[in-house]
Amino acid sequence: MTMLQLIYVSSVRPGAEGIDPDTILAKSRVNNQRDEITGLLYSDGTRFLQALEGPTDKVEAAYARIKADPRHRAIVMLSEREIQAREFGEWAMAHKTPSTDADEFIGRVSDLSANASPNVRATFESFAQVRRAA
Ligand SMILES: Cc1cc2nc3c(=O)[nH]c(=O)nc-3n(C[C@H](O)[C@H](O)[C@H](O)COP(=O)(O)O)c2cc1C
Q: Which residues pair with residue 50 across a beta bridge?
């Protein structure tokens, strides 16, 4: 079955630093299970990096909701591609925080966005640099 994989990066909206990723994750897991969406959410209190995989129409609908969510801003799509099999595991929404593990995830996203436009690539590079400095 052909599926859609979306990867984006965003910034926590100023003033919303206190938002609890657990609240976002709990809601996401319920919705994603229903929609056969899996993926991974990286959060460090400043940025979000999320991979979404699943049926094309469902992933597009989830992304439209996520894009409209006032808890974050400046969303940049890093990669959008058709996939034949899930690449980020079977979790309804795994969560990663700054750690060695997260570096591996960021490395994979880096590979996947290698062919992105220079603009998108620059956005990701600045994200990854902030990560390394953290
Ligand atoms: C960083 C971030 C990641 C999110 N990820 C998901 C997700 O994977 N799936 C999802 O359904 N909602 C996700 N949301 C929540 C959506 O923006 C939205 O609040 C939710 O889908 C609305 O669900 P409802 O229509 O059932 O109330 C995310 C929100 C943020 C800020």
A: 8, 41
Q: What is the pLDDT of residues 55-74, one digit of tens each?
A: 999 999 999 999 999 999 99
**Is the pLDDT at 133 greater than 70, yes or no?**
no
CA dihedral 99, 29, 37, 78 (to 10 degrees): -40
Side-chain-side CA neighbours of 40 within 13 Å: the count stands at 17
Q: Which residue matches tokens 């609908």?
A: 61
Distance 91 CA to ligand 1 centre (A): 15
Describe the crossing of helices 100-112 and 118-133 by its angle, rounded to 10 degrees. 170
For ligand 1, residues with CB inside 6 Å are 24, 27-28, 31-32, 41, 48, 50, 52, 62, 65-66, 69, 71-72, 93
Residue nearest (by alpha carbon) to ligand 1 atom 28: 66
Report the alpha-carbon distance of residue 67 to residue 63 in Å, rounded: 6
From the list 88, 82, 57, the residue with the least C-alpha distance to 1 is: 82
This prediction's pTM? 0.94
Please name each of the domains of the chain with its CATH number. 3-133 (3.30.70.100)
